[in-house]
Amino acid sequence: MNLSNNNFLSSKTQTWIIIIICAVFYINTLSNQFALDDNMVLTGNNSVKQGIAGIGDILTKDSFYGYIGNASDLTGGRWRPLSLIVYAVEYQFFGDNPSIYHLNNFLLYIFCCLILFKFLKEFVFKSDHLAAFIATLIFAIHPIHTEVVANIKSLDEILSLLLLLLTLYYSFKYIDDSSNKKNLIKSLLCYAFALLSKENGITFLAIIPLSFYFLTKKTFKEIFFYYLPYFIVGLFYLVIRFTAFRATGTSTDILNAPFLHATFEEQIATKILIMGKYLILLFIPYPLSYDYSYNEIPYVTFSNLYVWITILVYGALSIFAIINLKKKNITAYGILIYLISISIVSNFLVDIGAPMGERFLFQASVGYAICLGLMLSNLFVIKNNVKAFRITLISATLLCGYITIARNSDWKNNEELYIHDVKVSSNSLRTNLNAGAEYITLSEEDPTLQKQYFDAAIPYLKKAVAIDSTTIDSYLNLGVIYQRSGDLDTAEEYWEKARTISPKDDRLKEYENFLSLTYLRKGLDMAQKNNDPGKAIFYFQKSIKYQDNADAWCNIGAVYFSQGNYKDAKSAFENALKINPDHPNAKRGFADASAKVNASSNALPK
Question: CA angle at residue 10 from 5 to 14, to 5 degrees?
Answer without folding.
Answer: 115
